[in-house]
Amino acid sequence: MANQQGTGQSTQQDAKQKMITGSAWMTAGSITSRILGAIYVIPWVAWFGVYSNQANATYAQGYNIYNMFITIATAGIPSAISKMVAHYNGLNQVQMSRKLYRAGIAVALVSGVICAAIMMLGAPLFARGDKNVIPVIRSLSWAILLIPWMSITRGYLQGYNWMAPSAMSQFVEQLFRVIYMLSATYLIMKVGSGNWVHAVTQSTFAAFIGAIGSVAILGWSYLRHMGDMQQMEAESVPLESDVSAFRLIFNIVYQAIPFIIIESGITIFQLVDQYTFEPMMHAVGHFTHYQVDVLYALFSFNANKLYMIIISLAAAMAVTAIPLLAEARVKDDVPGMRDQISNILMLFYFVMVPASLGLSSLAQPIYTVFYRYDPAGVTMLKFASFISITLGLYTVAAAMMQGISENMKMMKYLIVGLIIKAILQFPMIWLFKGIGPLLATGLSMSVINYLILHSFNDEFRLPFHEMAKDTNQILLFSLIMYAVTTAFVMVTNLFFSPYGRFSAVVTMVVGAFIGVAIYTYLSLKSHLADRLLGARVGIIREKLHIR
Fold first, then answer.
1. Strand runs (DSSP E) across 84-154, as ranges?
2. Distances from the Cα of 28 to the Cα of 23, 59, 324, 352, angstroms
3. Alpha carbon of 267 to those of 67, 77, 89, 119, 444: distances in Å?
4. What is the Cβ-side half-sphere exposure of residue 433, based on CA atoms within 13 angstroms?
5. Of 25, 222, 394, 404, which is the most exposed, with the fewest CB atoms less than 10 Å away?
């Protein structure tokens, strides 16, 4: 009996370690690519000059359509493949995993071509006739040709819990993209014609250039792991019967359809904003097209670019969660699933809450560095920082629902959230103008998150009483950090101009260091970090002489 208990504890520790290691890789890849995707904004906005807000709004509208088509083109297959590969590997049927990958590639290549053609031909419809947005959508359609293969290969390798290739490919993809878009923008705006629409179009075409870099890294990683996969296949259980490619494709698509809707949840909310914000703003006041564009740019591009860095932390955990939970589900390991869900939630709180509060406390210098000082933009970013917690929790919680095969229930919750969003959208815009769409999204996402957590508790009886102490400590330490960094920014503004970019850089860097130092010290001193990240954190505490 003791031996069985020891084995169970060892399995739980292994799963937790996989979660932490996988999340570390995915977080590193996601956060570095997001940081790159935010840093480029500094010179990019400066080169656009007076056209920057119009460029940001046009860029955001094109990318919202693009993000939706990425999800459709890949048909949710990367997450489905990741889940199904983990499922069959858990049954020691590695040959089936290889067949799934080959079938998934066939589906994705076809869907990529179809979706790219629809984007190219349907651009005027999606842009609502806006001549500035049409070329942007068409330039993004080229990337759709490569992204399905890229995404499926990432999902396949993640199914083996090999997270490093995905992290590396994300970074390279963003690096190639940023280099091309900055080069093209500089040449057009500073050397060439100065046509801001052409510059935005080349900036979005950079997604295709980035995809080429990512494909190269994933191809190299696949070949590098080929030997390991062949060995696992040789040691696996032989297939009892030859499953047809058609049946595999049908199963993949059947599994993937819920993923399409669930994974595009945030994008769907952004599309609701894109197509309703302008008419609703005209309905509640006499705003010009330019004024609406500026307000739309503030929350859909400017703030979005910065708070999505934080949400990328949640996305990294979400990607790691699906195969681990799928493996536990196939073994009907209820205690394992309960432990995984509670571990993922606590890891999410540990990272996301302080990151969101930290972004809010440093909103003024951060916004000034990336764009230029703008009281409306700073207010928008502060508010969006808190809303990002609900978006991040949705990302993680929805992934866990998929991991335990509760796709239909998750779709119902998303539909409930979208109905609430539709009901709240107009009154929120009427009352709060530019902040309205963010508030409507935050309230809707909060309802979805409540329904998901309630469902988890019903099925697994989550140990909320055990999680309460750690959750309260996370919130307390985050609020202390928030108060100190906010006070630091206020004091700094008494001595240095908040309008200057150089002083904003100094305030941002020093403030971030203070915030991280406070939260790290309190987490180590209380042993909170040990409980959530593992015993190896104790080594860091020893080196820092924190008892």
1. none
2. 8, 26, 19, 15
3. 7, 17, 32, 16, 14
4. 13
5. 222
Round to whole Å and give the CA distance between 164 and 513.
28
Nearest to 301 by CA among 203, 192, 419: 203
342 within 8 A of 467, measured Cβ to Cβ = yes
**Cβ-proximal residues to 256 (8 Å cutoff; 6+ apart), any chain:** 75, 76, 77, 79, 80
Residue range 466-501, pLDDT digits in tens: 889 999 999 999 999 999 999 999 999 998 888 888
Token look-up 């990607």 returns: 319
Q: How many CB atoms lie within 10 A of CB 212?
A: 16
User: Hey, what's the torsion of the CAs at 383, 389, 391, 397, to 10 degrees?
Assistant: -170
User: How far is residue 381 from each of residues 138, 267, 496, 502, measured CA to CA in Å?
Assistant: 30, 19, 21, 20
Give me Rg for the CA atoms of the chain.
23
Please list, in sequence order, all residues whose beta carbon lies within 8 angstroms of the beta carbon of residue 543, skipping any fewer than 6 positions away: none
Q: How far is CA 491 from CA 87, 485, 504, 508, in A?
A: 55, 10, 13, 13
Q: Are 17 and 155 in contact (CB under 8 A)?
A: no
CB 75 within 8 Å of CB 315: no
- Answer for the pair 387, 435: CB distance below 8 angstroms, yes or no: no
Distances (CA, A) of 461 to 330, 394, 406: 19, 20, 16
* 171-230 per-position pLDDT tens digit: 888 899 999 999 999 999 999 888 999 999 999 999 999 999 989 988 888 888 888 777
What are the C-alpha distances in Å from 224 to residues 173, 220, 317, 374? 19, 6, 25, 49
pLDDT band for position 3 (cuts 50, 70, 90): very low
Q: Where are the alpha helices (DSSP H) in 362-435?
A: 363-370, 375-403, 407-432
Distances (CA, A) of 259 to 55, 166, 254, 286, 398: 32, 19, 10, 41, 9
pLDDT in tens, 404-451: 878 889 989 999 999 999 999 999 999 999 899 999 999 999 999 999
Rounded to 10 deg, the angle between the 407-432 and 375-403 helix axes is 170
Q: Residue 53 and residue 42: Cα distance in Å, rounded?
A: 13
- The residue ranking higher by pLDDT, 62 or 68, is 62
Is there a contact between 276 and 97 (Cβ–Cβ < 8 Å)?
no
The position carrying tokens 């067949």 is 99
Measure the N-to-C terminal CA separation of the chain; round to a whole number of Å.
36
Are the C-beta atoms of residues 368 and 377 closer than 8 Å to each other? no
